[in-house]
Amino acid sequence: MRTLIVSLLLLAGIAMYIFWRIRRDRGIRRKTIAVADVGEVFRQISAQGVETSFAVFQIRKKEEDDAVEIQYSVEDGKTGLDWILMSPANIEEKPKVIQYAASRGVEWQEREMNDWLYLRIEQGDVVGLCTSLIEDLYQVEQVELKYGGFRYKA
């Protein structure tokens, strides 16, 4: 009887661990990365990502500044660059990022999903534009990466 109880407790513990790992793997993960790694994030989300996979780069010039966010996401099977018009900081910076892309011959497409507007680019040097936006406009060397729907390996 004691062996049966110990076995059941062990099996319950293993099941709880597996459940926890599965839930954790579906959640949003975070890590600080160098801007130089933004291209590797694009490569990995493009290779592994499925519909709704995302990699958000949170950019903060100073600790007290509101962060802006730019992201890669998979939409209709394509990985693209998005400027989500949700936060006040992103809305305020919209004209600046439109002008910045236009100065490089790139035009954002305005889209809507789930009642949220966003700008998207799927063509051309998406990685180069993302990296230069972060480096030139915001002059930071590291960003906070929030991602889900794929496994990022540094």
Name a few traits of the molecule.
154 residues, alpha+beta, 7-stranded antiparallel beta sheet, 7 strands, 42% helix
Structure description:
The protein has 154 residues and is an alpha+beta fold. The protein has one domain. 42% of the residues lie in helices and 29% in strands. The chain has 4 helices and 7 strands. Strands 1-7-2-3-4-6-5 form a 7-stranded antiparallel beta sheet. A hairpin with an 8-residue loop joins strand 2 and strand 3. It is globular and about 75 Å long. The termini are far apart. About 6% of the residues have low confidence.
Specify the helix fraction band.
Answer: 40-55%
* H/E element sequence: HEHEEEHEEHE
By secondary-structure content and strand pairing, the structural class works out as alpha+beta
Q: Termini, distance in Å?
A: 48 Å
Number of strands: 7
Unreliable runs, pLDDT <50, ≥5 residues? 17-25
Domain count: the total is 1
The number of helical runs is 4
How much β-strand is present in the residues?
25-35%
Q: Categorize the overall geometry.
A: globular
Strand arrangement within the widest β-sheet reads 1-7-2-3-4-6-5
Largest sheet: 7 strands, antiparallel
Question: How large, in whole angstroms, is the Cα Rg?
Answer: 20 Å
- Average pLDDT score: 86
Short description:
The chain has 154 residues and is an alpha+beta fold. The chain contains four helices and seven strands.
